[in-house]
Structures are given as structure tokens and as C-alpha cells.
């Protein structure tokens, strides 16, 4: 499936065997897998051998998972409306950090789309039935299918809390998930801003300041979750090394002193991968999964937390 959304985004899907296998591995190991990514990010800070982990993680994130494209709310709503299946599940990152910080942002905000949405919903139904048939404890089924209106309500509620939207891909450029990220918990944001890894690229837009309409109210600076806007002595500056082009500042500004413009070098490449690229993706995936299996031998499995997750008071899906 290939569908042109606007000047910067083409919605692409793929049902290949390789992608299905990677999807299943990720769906089965969502919590442990993301914990492993964070573990790899920590190793990348090591002064002796960290460069190996840094290069590996940057290559893996660029070509396999996730290279999430940051988008404004209008584009995310368009993606939802153009998708043929949408479901929601709890955010693995916020589950992981639940015991480590006081984040109160909604938990059920991970929106799966199209083939990935159908696949994970089906996998959870099968797993639930097998557990029941074997007399095992049946956990919650968290891949809940949504109407497009329900999905848009979730992203609008998340945006009120200044959460950053990402359109994720598993094997570029095929998208599979919409994330609503908070800076407290997001593994990808942690790896960019705390670990210095090039794994969280900015989106295809950049904010442009129009001084003549600015009232110096400071709303944009207060709303920016990345502290990329500074307002001092009646002068507004944008730190483009921190800015991801998420659009929160422009959505907050009441006088249109900040607007989004397309940033051509960061417009996603929507070419389908050829044989060489697919072989490289398989090599990266096999390398990472081998390291993940080693990691699992020395760390407690926590995937069960996914099915034990319950909505927070801030969730609109209860």
C-alpha cells in the first residue's frame, strides 16, 4: 500500500514475510526489547568500547527500528484518517519508567496502524485463547481496535499535555505506529538528549519566527517540551540543534508569530528497499537480536508488565 498524504509524507505499508517476522519478535518482546535499547544506549557512553554500541544503535535505528518521524498534530490526524485499521495499546516506555519517575501522562497512547494494527490485535486474541484453553491466567488484551474518531480523540488529549508525535517505521520506509512521547520516559528522546546518539532525527518541518506579530507572551517557550525556544530581552531564539519540528510551539502561538515550513533535507525518503537494503536490514536485525538474547540471560524478563498495565486517570480510553 502506498498513499501520498501531503508534500512531505507518503503512507506506506508492506506485508512481506520478513517484516511480519520482525513485527512478531517486537510484539512478543516489547518491554524487554525497549529496555534492551536503553541498555545499549547506556553502553554507548562507555569511553573504551562505547563507539561499537553507538554505531550499531545508530545504524539499527536508521534502517530498522524506529527512525520515528516527528510530525505536527494536523499531519498525525491525516495519517489516522488515511489508515485502514487503527488500534491502541499502552506505551512500553512509560511502563518501564513507571517506578522511576512521577510521570502522569496517559499510558494508552501507542496507536498501531494498518497491517501492524491487524497483526498485533490478532496475535493478542490468539495468545489469550491459548492461555485460557491451557487453564493459565489470562491477562488483559491491550491491542484495542479503535474508530478513527476515538484515535483522534487520543492524540488531541495527548497534545494538550504537550506530548510529541512520531510516526514510526519498522524497516524504512514502512510505517506501523504512532507514538505520543513525553520527555520523562521516551527511550528514543533519552538516547538523543542524554546519551548523544543520532537516533532521533527531527521531522520534515521547522518553526519560523515572525517578529512583527510576536507579543512576547512566552507561551511557545513554556510549551516546548525540549527547551528549544528562548525568550530573553524581547528577543525569541530557536535552538535548531534541539528542535525536532514537532509543531507544539506553532499550535500554541495565538498570533501566528511562529509557523511551520518544510525543511527539505529532512523530508523522509519513501523509496522501497531493494535487495541490498533488505539484506542489510536482516544483518542488523540478526546482530541486535543475538545481543538481545545475551541480554535476556542476565536480566529479569518484564514483558508481563505490558498485559498488566491499566489506564491512568489521564487516559481517555478506560
Structure, described:
- By secondary structure, this protein is of the alpha+beta class.
- The protein folds into two domains: 2-204 and 267-308, no CATH class; 206-262, Alpha-Beta Plaits (2-Layer Sandwich), CATH 3.30.70.
- 42% of the residues lie in helices and 17% in strands.
- The protein has twelve helices and twelve strands.
- The strands form four sheets. A six-stranded antiparallel sheet has the order 3-7-8-5-4-6.
- A hairpin with a 2-residue loop joins strand 10 and strand 11.
- Helix 1 crosses helix 6 (114-133) and helix 2 runs parallel beside helix 8 (187-193).
Question: Can you summarize this structure?
Answer:
The protein is an alpha+beta fold and 318 residues long. The chain is built from twelve helices and twelve strands. 42% of the residues lie in helices and 17% in strands.
CA(first)-CA(last) distance: 32 Å
Counting DSSP H or I runs of 4 or more residues, the number of helices is 12
Overall pLDDT score:
88
Radius of gyration, in Å, reads: 20 Å
Sequence of strands across the biggest β-sheet: 3-7-8-5-4-6
Total strand segments? 12
Helix-and-strand structural type: alpha+beta
Question: How would you sum up the global shape?
Answer: globular
Low-confidence stretches: none
Order of helices and strands: EEHHHEHEHEHEHEEHEHEEHEHH
